[in-house]
Amino acid sequence: MSQSQPVWRPLLLACLAVPALAACSGDPAPRASPPRVPAPAPVSSTAPASTTAPPPLPDTSKPSASAPKKTASPTPAKAPGSCGTVTAASGLTLNVFDSAAGGVPCAEAMRLVGEFHARIAGRQGSGSDDAVNDTVEGWLCTSGPPAAQGGTTCGKGEQTVFASVVPAE
Hints:
Helix content: 10-25%
Strand content: 15-25%
Mean pLDDT: 73
Shape: elongated
Structural class: alpha+beta
Number of strands: 6
Distance between the termini: 94 Å
Strand order of the largest sheet: 1-2-6-5-4-3
Low-confidence stretches: 44-50, 62-75
C-alpha cells in the first residue's frame, strides 16, 4: 500500500462489499418474526332480524289549520314500530324500538333499557361526549354520547335492542 492512500479506505470498501455480496448469495437473511397477536373473536356475518328501522315519524312541527289543538300529555304517544319511551341516565327521552321480530318482546326491551340507564345513572351527564358501557343480565349495553344525540344499543348473542333519542320539541 502506498503512503499517500489512507489505511481506512480499504477497510471501508471491505465493510461495504461484504453485505452486498451476502445479498447475492441466494440465502435469505433470517427475519425476526412479528409478535403474535391473538386472533379477534369471530363476528357473525348475519344481521339480526331486528335491525330494520321503524318508519319515520310524521312531521308535527307545523300544525295544520284543520288539526285539533293538542293538550300536553305526560307520556308521549307511542310511535309506530316502537315499544314506548324510557328516560335515559342523561335525562333525555329514548324511544325503544320493537325488537319482537328478533326474539325480544317489547316488555323485556323496555325493562332492559330502563334497567341499564338506572345502572349508569350519574356516569353520563346530558352534555357528555363519552359513551358508557355496562352489562345487564348478560346483555352488553352502550349508551352513546348524549351531546351527539347518541342512542342506546344492547346486544346478547344474535339479539339486539335499539333505543333512539327522541328529539326535543
